[in-house]
Task: inverse folding
């Protein structure tokens, strides 16, 4: 049977652009049909902006790669119309165990907060993730949305101009030229776009290798995240076991620095390692094996004129903490509404510089977290190993040491503190909903808050009056009128009001708070809208 | 009787741990050992309370009765 990642999902098909007498101009071109390029394209098309996606391949991600998807990206996918199939197929988990040497030192429960539509995490193979996004593209196409994916279209050269970009595209039938008003480069960690533009990608390489294997087995290991430090079956190194759908299990085995990658990857060398870990009697089949050296690095700037970088092309993290694809989706979530306003002439081009500022901040937070995890898993010196082992020993006996154990701080969205788009906080409310924060979900009877926020700006009023529609210099803001009574669990009150009787929130299209105050004040809200769209 | 705190008590535990490692960076093992010894004495003086220090010594030795 063919695996999903072996079947062409967007096969090459000759485009009329290839026979046009002069290069055809598109609104937006996206390079790369990975998770991030697909998210960018769906977001644009859904809002009526014409987009063409070019990918040098015609299939989803080879092997699984990403498996852990966090709540915030699932909420973004809900807005993009493809969150449900992911959650339906994905494995939900909250429990984990930590092992040190030959024993379990403790177990944990993530205890996700109640009152959110989406779980804290799901595990899902990256190929399913991409497949469901491609399905969403097909659905949009059937509805007539202006979106196209061109498989086996490899971008070979880029010309940048003040008001457009020009691309040389190689296909199985020769090359052609295409133009676009804007280019979003989502061409992965090895980004050819970055190279062609001569931009740096600096950071740290971790001197270590990890064998990543997906195995299919019929085993009764529970749906938990198990992490081993220095286990008997992989002395001096670490290991991870985590469940995916279809009886597929992710196994990470740390191998150290001085190894022969090609040799270690051969099944005759991989299988004995896995048997030592899983037990001699466990029957399994290898689905995919790869060896990685991890890096943490980013571009200095994500925007270069009409070329905007997103996802792994802009920043790369080690996978401990599942921050790669998860943060890439937050990039396009941040970018697309800004690009749309700029393209529609409703905001100055400088609004796009806030994408750079906010997402560089996000990337730095992710790089910091995943570097720390990597340093804990692979101590850099004898003393850091002694301290690390002391933390693990103590964690078995004393709860205080457990927060210091770091096998990956799982992805959470960042708050854009200090962003020029934020207005000064005028509500003495909960810290988690201060300007710059991603809106936390809250239950509303049988429904939830986040799906009620549109692709546009929203004015959320809780027990406060305000006009139903405000238009400020071309930017529309629609009101969502709620009352604390709409949520009997009082989560809405606790998350958005605290001790206040009422509150008014200006919420950006990416569901981050731009401004908040106790009641509606027209001049102040209008100023906040201008500020949030780069006009103040 | 005073009790040693053995539940999480450091705000920003990851920041603290990173700072601890950063202070050891670039030191050889012998110098790192000396730094740790000084750190123990500085922290012990800050705690001051003899009963707590005795409990802390037992906790560090992973004694069951603590
Ligand atoms: C072992 C491992 C585990 C991981 N686990 C997680 C996890 O649990 N959670 C998580 O969030 N992330 C995880 N990641 C990271 C995640 O896989 C990446 O962050 C994610 O794939 C990045 O998506 P992207 O769309 O930016 O780039 P990619 O997925 O790399 O896609 C880039 C696309 O660009 C195309 N392309 C490249 N050059 C050209 C060209 N010249 N012309 C046309 N097309 C081109 C490629 O064919 C490809 O389709 C993991 C990664 C690894 C390796």
Result:
């Amino acid at each position: 049977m063919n695996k999903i990642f072996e079947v062409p999902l967007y096969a090459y098909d000759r485009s009329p652009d290839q026979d046009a007498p002069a290069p055809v101009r598109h609104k937006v071109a996206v390079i790369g049909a990975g998770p991030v390029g697909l998210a960018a394209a769906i977001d644009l098309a859904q809002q009526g902006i014409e987009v063409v996606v070019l990918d040098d391949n015609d299939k989803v991600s080879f092997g699984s790669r990403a498996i852990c998807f966090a709540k915030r990206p699932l909420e973004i996918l809900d807005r993009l119309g493809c969150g449900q199939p992911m959650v339906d197929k994905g494995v939900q988990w909250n429990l984990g165990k930590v092992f040190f040497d030959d024993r379990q030192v403790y177990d944990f429960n993530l205890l996700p907060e109640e009152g959110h539509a989406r779980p804290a995490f799901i595990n899902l193979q990256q190929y399913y993730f991409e497949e469901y996004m491609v399905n969403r593209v097909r659905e949009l196409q059937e509805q007539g949305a202006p979106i196209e994916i061109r498989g086996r279209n490899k971008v070979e050269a880029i010309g940048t101009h003040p008001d457009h970009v020009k691309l040389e595209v190689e296909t199985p039938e020769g090359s052609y030229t295409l133009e676009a008003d804007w280019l979003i480069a989502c061409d992965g960690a090895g980004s050819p776009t970055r190279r062609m533009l001569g931009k740096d990608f600096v950071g740290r390489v971790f001197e270590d290798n990890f064998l990543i294997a997906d195995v299919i087995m019929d085993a009764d290991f529970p749906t938990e995240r198990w992490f081993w430090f220095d286990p008997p079956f992989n002395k001096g190194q670490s290991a991870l076991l985590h469940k995916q759908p279809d009886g597929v299990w992710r196994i990470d085995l740390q191998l150290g620095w001085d190894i022969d990658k090609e040799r270690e990857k051969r099944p005759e060398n991989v299988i004995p390692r896995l048997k030592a870990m899983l037990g001699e009697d466990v029957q399994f089949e290898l689905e995919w094996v790869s060896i990685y050296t991890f890096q943490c690095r980013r571009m200095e700037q994500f925007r270069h004129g009409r070329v905007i970088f997103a996802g792994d092309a802009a920043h790369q993290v080690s996978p401990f903490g599942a921050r790669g694809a998860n943060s890439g989706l937050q990039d396009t979530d941040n970018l697309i509404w800004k690009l749309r306003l700029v393209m529609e002439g409703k905001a100055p081009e400088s609004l796009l510089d806030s994408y750079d500022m906010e997402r560089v901040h996000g990337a730095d937070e992710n790089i910091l977290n995943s570097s720390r995890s990597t340093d804990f898993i692979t101590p850099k010196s004898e003393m850091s190993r002694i301290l690390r082992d002391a933390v693990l020993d103590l964690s078995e006996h004393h709860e205080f040491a457990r927060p210091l154990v770091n096998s990956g701080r799982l992805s959470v969205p960042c708050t854009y503190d200090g962003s020029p788009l934020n207005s000064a906080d005028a509500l003495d409310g909960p810290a988690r909903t201060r300007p710059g924060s991603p809106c936390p979900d809250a239950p509303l009877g049988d429904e939830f808050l986040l799906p009620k926020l549109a692709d546009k700006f929203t004015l959320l009023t809780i027990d406060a009056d305000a006009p139903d529609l405000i238009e400020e210099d071309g930017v529309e803001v629609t009101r969502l009128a709620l009352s604390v009574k709409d949520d009997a669990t009082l989560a809405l009150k606790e998350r958005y009001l605290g001790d206040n009787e009422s509150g008014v929130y200006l919420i950006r299209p990416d569901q981050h708070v731009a401004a908040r105050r106790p009641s509606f004040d027209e001049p102040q809200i209008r100023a906040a809208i201008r500020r949030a769209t780069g006009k103040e | 009787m005073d009790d040693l705190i053995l539940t999480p008590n450091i705000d920003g535990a990851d920041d603290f741990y990173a700072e601890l490692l950063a202070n050891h960076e670039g030191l050889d093992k012998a110098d790192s050992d000396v730094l740790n010894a000084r750190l123990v004495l500085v922290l012990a003086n800050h705690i001051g309370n003899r009963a707590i220090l005795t409990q802390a010594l037992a906790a560090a030795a992973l004694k069951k009765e603590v």
Chain A has a mean pLDDT of 95.
